[in-house]
User: Fold these one by one.
Assistant:
Number 1:
Amino acid sequence: MASVARPDTKTLFQIDPNWFAENGRDLREEVHALLCEECRVWYPVPADALLVDHIHPETGEVTRVDALWESLAEHCGHLPGYIAPSTPLTTALFRALLANGNRPLTPEQLHKRVGKSNPSGILKVLMGAEIENGIVPVE
Ligand SMILES: [Zn+2]
């Protein structure tokens, strides 16, 4: 993945699934761990998840998405406590992107979603020496 020259608070960031593979982490398992109890009844183990149709609310376009991600985006990610005041910032940013179906978000948008820190503080965290949870700037 090529690097973005000068990331700022309007630069889009997303989770790089390859980073998880390279760092010995299982992204699907981590998504599964964040499902609420209700959704876990439907998908008891990560491997069970199927592809489901997602209909874009505005364009009506149908795409096949992973059911685990879809559950987070449509349900669990909206529950109180998914991002709590006590959730560490790096975890909160990761959860916010997961609940957005890993569609890219800017530090400004992330700030609105997590309600912590501020856009430039979030940018600083995301551009830190260590990549946290595979979150990288998007071309
Ligand atoms: Zn749920």
Number 2:
Amino acid sequence: MHAKEKFNKAAQEKIVDKDFRQKMGVVLDKLVQNQQHGALEFSNLAIAKQRAAYTKWKVAENLDKYLVDFEGSVIRKGGKVIWAYDAQNALSEIDSIIARLKAKKIVKSKAEIFDEIGLNKHFRSKSLKLTETDFGEYILDLMGEKSYHPIIPSLNQSVQAVGSILNTKIKSSLEANLDEWASDVRAEIRPCFYEADIGISGANFLIADSGLVAISENQGNARLSFAFAKTHIIIASIDQILPTISDLELFFSLLSTHATGQQFATYNTITGPPTRDDKEGPTEFIVILLDNGRSNILATQEQRQALSCIQCGACSNVCPIFKIAGGDANYQSYRSGPIGQIVAPLQQGFQEYQYLSNLSTTCGKCTDVCPVNIDIHNHLLRNRHENLVQGFEKTGEKFAWYTWKKFMLSRKTLNRPAAIKNFTLKQFYKSEWGESREFPKIAEKSFNQLWREKIGIK
Ligand code: SF4
């Protein structure tokens, strides 16, 4: 089934589920309130956003230089950088490291990029023990479900479902509350940190001039995942570069205020290759730098700004489409929400993923809330234009618009009885409109007919 058809099917199920919509509305509205509260931390948020946007613009315009600077800094400190052209390339490199180390136990902590390269699915086919260390991801892994929200992956799961899976898998009490379940999960995964051969983490920012990696989190599992393992693998994308460590103050606070409303996340870690003075921790520090189609975005002068994203998730929380039909799992792409809808067709191809650019009312709420001033809704419009330029408009769509134009330019057709017009429109747009919504009815008489009647012309 085509990705668009899968999305339509999944979205139609969600749209008619009133309880689910109400629950999502409440949770997402709470996240929006948190973000609004977090924004009050800035004496002048507009200037903070402008500064961040300028820094990311500078990075995108000089990405080749910053990436080479980062690589050089890591190597000088004794670490290693591996360039991965695509997801398959990244997975092969990870396999080679595992084979070289004869590693059997791996711990990993949540990062969107793992979904992008299909890390869990890849590991499941191998005889390795992979432990998810973040609570939400751990639950989803037990359930075999995909992440639903960029910041709170198990957002769509009910308390009952969480209790039930933990009761089945790790014998947690059904009567316990969320804190007690989180404590049970921590007890379950704690030994895995000590036993791990490899710790895999994502990164929030890569610091070009010092070869350091910055990670912002609330559960502290990323830092634990490489505290005991002898090898730390970081998987990061080429657009996560910041020029200097002094940029972190602004970016850490923009990220946490817009993601969760916190002034700063609970744990902000800056790590790098081991030094001679380090008595503990990893002896090997490897960064896998993933491109996976980001060069395509970089090559488009107009859309390049999409590489500025710091993955705070704020644009998803305010998006009316995400609210009623959304969830990462539904979008059929590894990144969802408004920013995912821009980058997916550019990274993965318009032919398969153009439908994502149309999942928007272009209300502009996403653009307003973005901490790095990405012009999100206009980039979605640019994508729609690009789809036409690349010639991927479907024959059915072309025919529909051709007919629409004919219809609208013909006075005779517009003055036909409403029943005929209603029937024709419904036939044309039936599949796009879906079964669950009533198609809007056209007025009994056209404006032209009403006007003629008013002034007495037959
Ligand atoms: S596009 Fe902006 S609002 Fe959306 S996730 Fe990225 S940084 Fe956050």
